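Dear Dr. H.,

I hope your travels went smoothly. While you were away I took the liberty of generating a structure for the chain from your last submission, since the lab meeting agenda had it listed for discussion. I wanted you to have the full record in hand beforehand rather than looking at slides cold. The sequence, exactly as received, is reproduced here:
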Amino acid sequence: MTVTASTSTSTAILAGSGDVPEGFVTCTVDGVVVSVPKGTLIIRAAELLGVAVPRFCDHPLLDPVANCRMCLIEIDGMPKPQPSCATPVAEGMVVRTQLTSAMADAAQQGVMEFLLINHPLDCPICDKGGECPLQNQSMSNGRAQSRFSGVKRTFPKPINVSAQILLDRERCVSCARCTRFADEIAGEPFIALMDRGSKQQVGTADDQPFDSYFSGNTIQICPVGALTSARYRFRSRPFDLVSVPTVCEHCASGCGLRTDFRRSSIMRRLAWDEPEVNEEWNCDKGRFAFPYVGEGRLTHPLVRDEDGELRPASWPEALDVAARGLAAAHGRAAVLTGGRLTREDAYAYAKFARVVLATDDIDFRARPHSAEESAFLAARVAGTGRGVTYADLEKAPTVLLVGFEPEEESPIIFLRLRKAVRRGSLAVHTVAPYRTEGSARLSASLIHTTPGGEAAALDALTGGDIGAALRAPGSVILVGERLASIAGSLSAAARLAESTGASLAWVPRRAGERGALDSGAIAGLLPGGRPLIDAAARIEVATMWGVDVATLPSLVGRSTDDIIRAILDDQDRVDAAHADNSDRPDVDSDPGAVEPVERAIAALVVAGVDPDDLTDPVPFRYALEAVPFIVSLETRHTKVTAQADVVLPVAAVAEKAGSFTDWEGRVRSFNAVLHEVGVQPDGRVLAMIADQMDVSFGRGDVVSLRNEISALGGWTGARSPAPGTTADQVSSLDPGHVVLATWRHLLDAGTLQEGEPYLASTARTPVIRLSATRAAALQANDGDEVTVTTHRGSITLPVEITDLPDDVVWLPTNSVGSRLRFALGVDAGDVVLIARGGDPA
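The corresponding predicted structure, in token form, is as follows:
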């Protein structure tokens, strides 16, 4: 029988298990003969046998450096101890660790004594106390007493390495884990070990603070209490915390996290070891942006009274008002879910819309979207299951990024791409208006493109060098959600994938979008990617839901933008009809009274939608004022709750069980961390409303919803091919006009970052980017103010000269000082006016 031991990086075959495979070498560790892959480090071979060699600088995802010398072991034939973290095994090598070698044990004790000469013994007040490798190994592999009688070194403390990272320099053991992570993994060498000997310390350049999206990882991998979190510092002891494995709710990367809480309050988040997804890393947004869970929360229902004011109400009263208002809509309700919901809750909304409200007017896309995107998602993404994976990205010879900035929109994709690029196995190309800092760290070649020209750029690649590279087996095309608003671009990406054989993957920005799509929270698609108009699909879903197939809506519903437009158009028609005949009855009391309002929207159910995310927030705010009845299911007060007739408090992600579907199509399940009194998961609230309306819906709990999703599975029937769409051509521009390019920064003015001042202070400063030629035409230098203007308003920011096409201006979508959609009412590809100075042109 073959017996193997393995970790995420290695496999060992014990002696007597059969022939040694090719590429393996055989050695002896503490008397046990073992075969491991050639190149395996001794410390890994020992781990595979269950032998824990002490270490500080070693980390399985970082290059070996043998800085700390704590892992010294004895090797037969070598006169002195060797670092096991930097020495690969060799055929016939005989290794003795501290368990069987007096030399190794003495060496390790000596190193520990040396490290403790200057390290403060203040474990009771150190944040790392109770989970500190130095603390543990000083007892397991150190001497009982120190011979040092001098004065330990001291430094002023703490030092702000960044807004959220604090450094206590006297605790540092110079393992270089933090500096190696910044250099090797993130590609941002903002920190380095400075000076030598007892004065050696971690430092930053004066003009380059550690403003990295990944800086929090250095806290977690620091083996001592040198690097700490500004938010968590001195707030709790590790042994006072309860730890729960969770999944990040901020983007579609699907990172595994460990959430630590105490007394119903989240204290911190750490990256969970998920080799297939985020390995042992996460971004700072996922690590630190959790205060929204506890601050400013809605904890009880609200109902609008006769005076137009929201007042607290009991659950029975609020549910009754919601049920009566939705029932009065007579099938003329619409549902906007946003992209932050769990897969189960999104499914509940999809079912609620079709079964309870008898409508297909439902959309999760609280962002720019298009009919082309709807067709693309229906044909290529919805219900297709696992597609391109992180492992595929690492093995790919070529990756093409289109309308997608991975560092800003899916940071773990960025880290996995960088890992492959650093290894030398991957070439990255990006179709974009300029080469960002993140693209530069991926060594990506730039295909310079003006927004609106993506389709033409992709079609031109087919016969060129990049097209030839994409024909190599395993190549991948990654398209971002931003392409939804660029006509023809998704169709062109699909054509390029078909002509080259490259795999095509869609990467949304929000964590819940892929799950919402698969769950049917979009017009025209039932759960699992089933077409609403397909008879067999309707029968499958109706059978699962226990309803007559004839009761399911037969007309394909409207998108978010179309729903908003319909509300405003209907209101205009109603106002016009009433102006012509003021004696006619109100449309709300008699839906058939005014002919032009057929299929008018009389009620909205809104969940987790931030108006500022929409294509144009202003019409949405007008629509909220115009629609007769609104039910808002929310965690916090928003511009939607301010207009709602009923506000029902629902559980935040940390307060319920559920799952997200990441960009790969991988389902990432999690359990509740907290149990907030007075709130319910969305699915349970919808079930209670349905019950109040006397409609059979089910319990709405996560287990029931998950079982239904599993039973339905993905659609195996025919899919309509995504229709090709012709790209819009940008006409010649008037003087002073340019084409807008924009995307969101990872850290911006998003709702889920509220309450986190340390994280907010490391957000990238918004700037307006122009080419050198365009800036010269405005007589503007770096740092001068430039104003971007539309019919709606203007934004003034410092200019940063960038290698952009001359007819393009770039600014961030939703940063403080640049809330572009609200202030300007435009999106990528639209034409804007620019002028030098702070006054609109």
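Two observations you may find useful: Confidence is low (pLDDT under 50) at residues 581-598. The first strand starts at residue 4 and ends at 6.

With kind regards,
E. W.
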